[in-house]
Design goal:
The chain is α/β, with parallel strands linked by helices and 457 residues long. Helix content is 50%, strand content 9%. The longest helix has 37 residues. The chain is globular.
Length: 457
């Protein structure tokens, strides 16, 4: 009896072993097309760091080794949650597909699926892959560096987007003490000590490929609403406010590239807050002539070529131009913005991506991360070799003259919204609410400071 029981036990073990092997082989095909799983050797971020060292790691990932792990500590939980949620969505999609095909679903307990044949992908690797892709790295270089599939690279990109947007915020501060601190920082760099600037505002084009008709219809607009005629590119009008360091205080993306900066700003949540009196007394934003001068938005005097108002314009631009520097740092840090976002990325996902990049930009500034002067050569080649084209980063002599800082900006993405083509007629009429601007102009005149003479080339 004992011998028979022993034989039966051996048979059960053998059958279980065979079933496990069969199950493993059946599910190790890996590819959605049923191909054999490709063996890949996983590599950790630590191994990559040992190969690169401090300098090249910073150039590749746009932050230091220390900052990378500070960021990882903030995001590891949300990344894991994003991975789990995506797995649930895929599982439910498979169940629906089976029902659609009429395939019966077993009521028995499903066996626990085997672990990934090449091992799990850690949250640190997912974060590293995303940062390399945002910086302009080639997906093929990333997948070969970490031993993961092409699909997993892109999934990591979106896991990190979701994690960043869940963990960080960009909202203009409502606290008056914070606003006054921002104004004090602008005052410290103002040659005439303007003490009213609580942020610099401007717009930039987020370059995308022509969105599919169904995407445009889902949003409720025509495809041509995304076409920026001045830049001859499809895109989204991104409105942003920054502080003196180039840190984004507010960002709004609600209009296509055809919209003017004025209309895009008028539809933003920040505009509504400003109308409700969010700013402390005597504080305002500094914008260019794409906006309307008001009690909370101070702009230059148009068409000035001398005199007190021209002097005011110069010192006004000394602060306003900080937003152009911020856009330059933003695009230089995240090189993928120099190319068009692919058309298979929906408009809502594009907006989520850009907001996540802006939040990572702020994180880098908070961690005092300086943008490396040069990209990795392979990143520059990947960006400039993009089949849909790329925009260059060019030195701006006006910025160098006004604030004595050598910086590069994506001129091909800036200035596209400086028009009033879509603005209601009453916006084009001169406004008489000029008290704050007049006071600033009188202040400049009282200092006896003038626009410096232009340097001879």
């Amino acid at each position: 009896m004992n011998q028979r029981h022993h034989i039966e036990s051996l048979i059960v073990v053998a059958v279980a072993a065979y079933a496990a092997t069969h199950f493993s082989r059946k599910h190790s095909k890996g590819s959605r097309r049923g191909k054999q799983t490709r063996h890949r050797e996983r590599r950790t971020v630590e191994q990559i760091y040992q190969c690169l060292g401090d300098i090249y790691f910073r150039r590749a990932y746009r932050m230091s080794w220390r900052s990378f792990w500070i960021l990882h500590d903030k995001l590891c939980g949300p990344i894991e949650e994003a991975v789990v949620e995506a797995a649930k969505i895929r599982k439910e999609a498979r169940r629906k597909e089976k029902r659609k095909r009429g395939v019966g679903i077993s009521n028995r307990l499903n066996p626990t699926p085997p672990p990934p044949p090449n091992g799990t992908i850690s949250t640190s690797v997912r974060l590293a892959c995303a940062l390399r892709y945002y910086a302009g790295g080639s997906v093929y270089d990333i997948m070969s560096s970490y031993g993961i599939s092409h699909t997993e690279v892109f999934e990591s990109v979106w896991y990190v987007v979701d994690a960043v947007n869940a963990s960080f915020n960009i909202n203009y501060p409502r606290n008056h003490d914070e606003q006054k601190k921002i104004a004090a920082e602008f005052k410290a760099v103002s040659a005439v000590e303007f003490d009213v600037c609580a942020g610099a505002i401007d717009g930039i084009l987020i370059w995308i490929l022509k969105p599919p008709l169904e995407d445009a219809e889902a949003i409720g607009v025509d495809q041509m609403k995304f076409m920026c005629g001045r830049k001859h590119k499809y895109g989204l009008n991104c409105q942003a406010v920054c502080d003196v360091r180039g840190r984004f205080l507010d960002m709004s993306i609600i209009c296509g590239g055809a919209s003017s900066d004025l209309v895009a700003f008028e539809g933003s949540d920040l505009k509504k807050l400003l109308d409700d009196g969010i700013l402390a007394h005597n504080l305002c934003l500094f914008g260019d002539n794409a906006y309307i001068n008001s009690q909370y938005m101070v702009t230059p005097y148009p068409n000035m070529s001398g005199g007190a108002r021209d002097n005011y314009n110069y010192f006004h631009s000394q602060l306003r131009i900080r937003i152009e520097c911020a856009f330059g740092m933003f695009v230089q840090r995240w090189g993928m913005l120099r190319t068009a976002i692919p058309c298979n990325v929906s408009v809502p996902k594009t907006i989520s991506l850009v907001l996540a990049l802006a939040k990572l930009h702020n994180f880098c500034i908070d961690e005092a991360e300086v943008i490396p002067a040069n990209l990795l050569s392979q990143d520059e080649q990947n960006i400039t070799g993009n089949r849909n084209g790329s925009v260059p980063l060019v030195a701006d002599p006006l910025i160098a003259e006004i604030i004595n800082v050598n910086t590069t900006t994506p001129r091909d993405l800036m200035g596209g919204g400086e028009h009033f083509d879509d603005a209601p007629r009453h916006y084009r009429r001169p406004l008489h609410n000029d008290a704050l601007r007049s006071r600033l102009c009188n202040h400049v005149e009282s200092t006896f400071k003038t626009r410096p003479r232009r340097r001879e080339p």
